């Protein structure tokens, strides 16, 4: 099985969105460079960010996200973001009425079951877990192998926390950092 990675862009003070669920400038780094990150041509980053991000994105087999994120994005119109093959949505509710059953989205009750389903779908590829409440639950359950953060130079002061409602200490090790344009890419292994 592939690694389980918790990931998001994050403010310098540890938030993935403001109090109104808005990311503000957290994704500005994705359009601040001159190297296309995907085929759309919309996302353009620095060469350092491209080398770091593209190689990671190419290894993702499935993403786990919460129902709140799914609803905020309108289910990405039934197309997983960034060319990912599958999205596993952690929810206690069924798929939305009228949802295309052929779309590569899987609605699963509970974080542990969602990670297991994502691992089944991803095989030896990476399972990415969106940071926030779902990511924090996965970390607290001991399901996360690696934490990735794209730290953006902004301070929100309050909002949606990167680690959600995690209250216990979790040690991270082997930090790795790559400096991009208006972003610092950080990667940590989770100590077992």
From TrEMBL:
Which Pfam families does the record match to this protein?
Answer: RibD_C
Q: Name one GO biological process term.
A: riboflavin biosynthetic process
Q: Which InterPro entries match?
A: DHFR-like_dom_sf, RibDG_C
Supply one GO molecular-function term. 5-amino-6-(5-phosphoribosylamino)uracil reductase activity
Q: Where is the Bacterial bifunctional deaminase-reductase C-terminal domain?
A: 89-170
Protein name per Swiss-Prot or TrEMBL? Dihydrofolate reductase family protein
């Amino acid at each position: 099985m592939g690694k389980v990675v918790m990931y998001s862009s994050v403010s310098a003070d540890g938030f993935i969105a403001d109090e109104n669920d808005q990311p503000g400038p957290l994704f500005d780094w994705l359009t601040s460079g001159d190297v296309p990150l995907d085929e759309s041509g919309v996302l353009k980053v620095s060469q350092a960010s491209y080398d770091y991000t593209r190689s990671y994105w190419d290894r993702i087999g499935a993403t786990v996200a919460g129902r709140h994120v799914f609803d905020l994005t309108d289910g990405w119109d039934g197309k997983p973001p960034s060319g990912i093959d599958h999205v596993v949505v952690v929810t206690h509710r069924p798929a939305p009425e009228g949802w295309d059953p052929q779309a590569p989205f899987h609605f699963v009750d509970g974080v542990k079951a969602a990670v297991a389903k994502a691992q089944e779908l991803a095989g030896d590829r990476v399972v990415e877990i969106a940071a926030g409440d779902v990511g924090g639950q996965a970390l607290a359950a001991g399901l996360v192998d690696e934490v990735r953060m794209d730290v953006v130079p902004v301070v929100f002061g309050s909002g949606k926390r990167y680690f959600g409602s995690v209250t216990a200490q979790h040690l991270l090790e082997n930090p790795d950092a790559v400096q991009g344009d208006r972003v610092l890419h950080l990667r940590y292994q989770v100590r077992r």
